Amino acid sequence: MERAEKNVFIDYPFDRELPIHMKSVDVRDRYPEHAHSFCQIVYVARGKGQLLLNEDTLPARDGDLFFIPAGQAHAFRPSADAQQRHLRLISCIFEQRLLCFAENDHPLFGELGELTSAFLSLDRCLCVRDRSRELGRALHALQLNLNHKPTGYRYKLFVILIDLLERIHSAAGLSDPDRPIPSSDPPDDPVRWTVDHLTVCYKTPLPFEEIAGKVSISPRHLQRKFKAETGLTFIRMLQEIRIRQSCELLQNTDWSVQEVAREVGIEDMKYFYRLFREKCGMTPSEFRGEQQS
Length: 293
Hints:
By secondary structure, the chain is α+β, with helices and mostly antiparallel strands. About 45% of the residues lie in helices and about 20% in strands. It is built from 10 helices and 10 strands.
């Protein structure tokens, strides 16, 4: 594949009080190969393509997570497949200083230093497969805290980031170089995988037939298995998760009801009101008022 002739170096003007930033990106075409002064975690939420790294090329598909150290030249490319013409990426960038700890005798700082130094010393991109969707959930928690800024959110952001790095550290086997690379075989528990996918991607989940393909069983078999193990159909589970998330947003933000509905993936307001009343026994406004009283 043809590479860009010249790398672009990118800097980001972080707020000193908030050295973390997140955004979703749709990659639909060629993008210049570039590097930056900050660390980046990229999660592939949908689609497939490649990640170009100097002389190397890595496949990128939904459920892959990449830790890209500062200074690493890279670029994502969408697949040429007509059905997968763009990549939906969730990008988390943060300043390197978040990984730097002054010498301290307290054991806690020693443990954090061991973890973060493993990432600071990386001179290459790290790729792990999010088979259980726990990495996606951690990134989602980061995004919620950045969006809503609850009391103590800066502390929560740091704790979630450290937890995410620990999970990446474990999944990549950084503490055990001889650990085998995790298999990319279908998940052992297709129902758990499906529920985890809905929990992370409730706004724009994959079609049920596509999920069945990813867990390597027929849609009909997955439908029966899903209902038997959860007591709910796929659609009912998605509705439950969306309304649960709606309740959290109504309680913790000042967003309008319409903004909340859109955030959870529902554009039809009549449908949203009807579904909310069915699940909660009251309107969204009544729920918010009851929580604030």
